[in-house]
Amino acid sequence: MSDTVKAPEPQLIQGATGDWEIVLGLEIHAQVVSNAKLFSGAATEFGAEPNTQVSLVDAAMPGMLPVINEVVVEQAVRTGLGLKAQINNYSVFDRKNYFYPDLPQGYQISQFSQPIVGEGIVHVELADGSVREVGVERLHLEQDAGKSVHDLHPQQTYVDLNRSGVALMEIVSKPDMRSAEEAAAYVRKIRSILRYLGTCDGNMEQGSMRADVNVSVRKPGDDLGTRAEIKNVNSLRFIQQAIDYEAQRQVDIIEDGGAIKQETRLFDAGSGTTRAMRSKEEAHDYRYFPDPDLLPLEFDDAFVARIKADLPELPDDKMDRFQAELGLSHYDAGVLVAEREIADYFEVVANGRDAKIAANWVSGNLFGLLNKDGTAITDSPVTAEQLGGLLDLMADGTISGKIAKDVFEDMFATGKDAATIVDEKGLKQVSDTGAIETMVDEVMAANQDKVEEYRGGKDKLMGFFVGQVMKASKGQANPGVVNQILKNKLSG
Amino acid sequence: MSTLTDLTLAQARDKLKSREISSRELTEAHIVAMEDARDLNAFITETPEHALTMADAADARIKDEQNGDKIGPIEGIPVAIKDLYCTEGVQTTAASHILEGFKPQYESTVTANMWKAGGVMLGKTNLDEFAMGSSNETSYFGNVISPWRRTDDNAGQIVPGGSSGGSASAVAARIAIAATGTDTGGSIRQPASFVGIVGMKPTYGRCSRWGIVAFASSLDQPGPMTRTVRDSAILLQAMAGHDPKDSTSVNQPLPDFEAALTGDIKGLKIGIPREYRMDGMASEIDDLWKQGVKWLEDAGATCVEISLPHTKYALPAYYIVAPAEASSNLARYDGVRYGLRVDGDSLEEMYEATRGEGFGDEVQRRVLIGTYVLSAGYYDAYYLKAQKVRTRIAEDFRNAFEQVDAILTPTAPSAAFAAGEKGDDPIAMYLNDIFTVPASMAGLPGISVPAGLSADGLPLGLQVLGNAFDEETVFRVGSVLEQAAAFDARPAKWWGDKS
Hints:
The complex is a heterodimer.
Chain A: E1 12-15, E2 18-31, H1 70-82, E3 90-91, E4 94-97, E5 107-110, E6 120-125, E7 131-143, E8 147-149, E9 158-160, E10 167-173, H2 180-197, E11 209-218, E12 228-233, H3 236-255, E13 263-268, E14 273-279, E15 289-290, E16 297-298, H4 301-309, H5 315-324, H6 330-337, H7 340-350, H8 355-373, H9 384-395, H10 401-414, H11 418-424, H12 433-446, H13 448-455, H14 462-472, H15 479-491
Parallel strand pairs in A: 12-13
Antiparallel strand pairs in A: 1-2, 2-10, 2-11, 3-16, 4-5, 4-15, 6-7, 7-10, 8-9, 11-12, 13-14
Helix pairs in contact in A: 2-3, 5-6, 6-8, 7-8, 7-9, 9-10, 12-14, 12-15, 14-15
Chain B: H1 2-6, H2 9-17, H3 23-36, E1 43-46, H4 48-63, E2 78-82, H5 109-116, E3 120-125, H6 165-172, E4 178-183, H7 189-195, E5 198-201, E6 221-226, H8 229-239, E7 269-273, H9 283-298, E8 302-306, H10 311-329, H11 347-358, H12 361-373, H13 380-403, E9 406-410, H14 426-430, H15 437-442, E10 446-453, E11 459-466, H16 471-485
Parallel strand pairs in B: 2-3, 2-4, 7-8, 7-9
Antiparallel strand pairs in B: 1-3, 4-6, 5-6, 5-10, 9-11, 10-11
Helix pairs in contact in B: 3-4, 6-7, 8-16, 10-12, 10-13
């Protein structure tokens, strides 16, 4: 980022024995945008009837073999490039062996020692404008498992294999974050980058993005403490709650003379607490080994270069450009680049127009109505082109800013163009001095007493006259022209 | 009728083409033979109706002269399929209780290729459970019996070798003209040697593994089992080819294997690996090997001693790599989606009961070994080490094939043995694969050709190994051996209808 910025202050926990620092690392599982699964041709659409998107490979029928989906490989490379990370032209798929009913093969195909993407860097900005550089350790491809459904029958578990074999990218951060806010901002930033790249839809509610959070505490300056891993947290709010709870729990244990166990924990959204799932001693021995059904994944530099040439402008670069070229404030630029759809919308509105006004209308009036309506910008009833049309009517003096706000509300409600509404409702601003002079004369004639008072020195009555004229013009008179004519006639 | 079952694949093919015989009569003769030979227990599932339908379709294609060019290379030939190949709508068991009754909704690529080539399926042959065994004594569906008996013991049952024992017995007993096998460490070549037929393991990647129940993915390779080398070449032609559904299948042009049988090996250099001469090896094996050298030299080849220094590590490394992969490949048989399920009070109990009842002793032994060698703390010492050995073995062969065109060895260290003879000693059983395993570890093609009889009247095979994707040389040298050996012994019929 071009700004020179300071790193955030660590979030400290005040304990009985002094301050504690929280150390956080995240593993984000992001479902790859692709029509087919990682190793089979089955579809990946969310919300389909159970077990309707399952190929013979996904169900692990005897003799079935995995074949890599090249689209997914491209998406992983694209994501690696977006994270400014090392792309590994040679990587290996391994089997992670364990038994579970929603894991048909009895192993998950993943990448263990040789992932497709290596180290990268992400800049994470906090509310106070400070910026943390978070290291990405690696990104690897792996299969998702199916879903076990325990609540349909008192004794039995049902299995839905629609997700079985869906391609996931696991993005592993370094233990570089020091507060729950940073962790949430990091997830938000990764989500934004993936959505810009079109490699993950980032939908946490539907589970297409979820995070495992590694939490440890230490006295500032000490070595890393023992960490607990909180599995499968699926919202930004839960991530922050889980971290706050878990860090405090660890501080309490250590200060009570206990020791932190390296273990896997679950976050319970109901109580906002975490509880142990399994400890390291009972942890699975996954018996990783290279999958003999698959050759090592290899591609050449030209493959990477082709993807690189197609990369969209990413949020950090867009942010810089909005400030440097469009003159937006750091804050406005940040709001507008957070989501690719917002940035795209804004750029259409701003094209050939005053960027600051465009920014104000998008982040002010438009967001106001969208939020009130609970509508996403992609479903906005007012298109970017239509909003641009409204700004044009203001710029050429056809309507005033005040009228524009009303017109915009109409546009939002009806989906009509600004010009259509202005025409239909006769809202065109009157700047014709002859017409305004007539209105001024009428208002003065009807209010002789007030004219005398004004002339007697009661200047404040100017506002009254302007209001009356505007009212007479149904708000369409150009306020500047009205002021000028009133001043001349009243003083005459 | 009996003469029809004596036809080789090549002979039957020519008689079918000239319409001297029909596929229906040929198939019927083999169905009669199959039903008559149930004492051998060579089949888990017989599919006579299926066979007759396919035979009639073949006859129709042959009859329709306008379609003459659409007649497949094995049009109308009745063949048996190892019950490791998934066959659509026909029970596929891998000789395991855990898959009993399983009917796939799909056809393996290799069998689909064969049906496209006109083949007729007689049934699914017995094998060692999940192809784990060298004597066909581990099948849930009972032992396969070899049609052969020792000259001095007319009653003693002999094993056909394994794991493709049912296919071996079926071809040797003239039940099927040809059969498919799969070879992981010798499962085609060793049984071929034990019953006096030709067994060919192609280069790894030559045939698709898609739809074949996996034992050890990096080693498994389908191949033909026939009574002549020519038949082997014809059947491999129908089985092989690149398959995008198998990532390890190789996209290489398929040569005309039958055309490679020129009978001319003048000037070829044949390697004789000194490490294959083992202490305590039966002298009749060594003698046959020397005889093989002489046959090849008489035909104009030059035999030279070569060294494959890591040979002695091949078997131990194989018995780490293969079980490791098997332990993972067999994890899918968990009672959840298909096959056997034995209920329990918890998920763990269901898994334990299902797999405990579903898998036999040898399969459980290998799953345990495989799980152990992949475990944290043992992986480096066993699995990783075995993979390094594997690399060395492949290098040995690479170096050798810089000097020679093919390698000649015995196929197995002994003739077939009696049922139950080695049942208590897995290590003695594993030693059966000592000459076949190294080429499996290197992914190289090999053929076993019947070359003589042991002192007690049982067949002995010689093995020809070739460079990767050079099956043509393997077939050419194999056919020269076959002609020189002129092996025409056949088992005396003791089973079924003796009239």
